[in-house]
Amino acid sequence: MEFNDYQKLANRTLYGNEQVLTNLALGLASESGEVVDIVKKYAFQGHELDEKMMSKKIGDVLWYLSQIAEWNNLDFDKVARENIEQLKQRYPERHAE
C-alpha cells in the first residue's frame, strides 16, 4: 500500500472541526507514549516484547501522522520521500540503493 492511499483511506475515520489538529497532535503524543511504554517494559521491567501490541500502536501512530499530514494538505508519499532524502544526506556512508 502506498502512503497516499493509506492517508486517504484513514481519513474517512476523522471527525471534528477546528479542534481537529489539536486532537491529532494530542493523540499522536498519547499513542507514541504507548509505544515508549512497551519498550520500557521490555528494556527495564523484564517483560516479553509484545510484538502484536507494538504493531497495533505503531499503526495508531501512523494513523495520527497521516491525518496531521492530510489536515495540512501534505502529500504523505512526498513526506516519506523527503525524509529518506534527508537521511541519505545525514548518513551518506549508510546509503544503500
Automatic annotation (TrEMBL):
One of its GO terms (molecular function) is hydrolase activity. The keyword Hydrolase applies. Residues 22-94 form the NTP pyrophosphohydrolase MazG-like domain. Keywords: Hydrolase. Coiled coil: none annotated. Signal peptide: none annotated. This is Nucleoside triphosphate pyrophosphohydrolase family protein. It comes from Latilactobacillus curvatus.
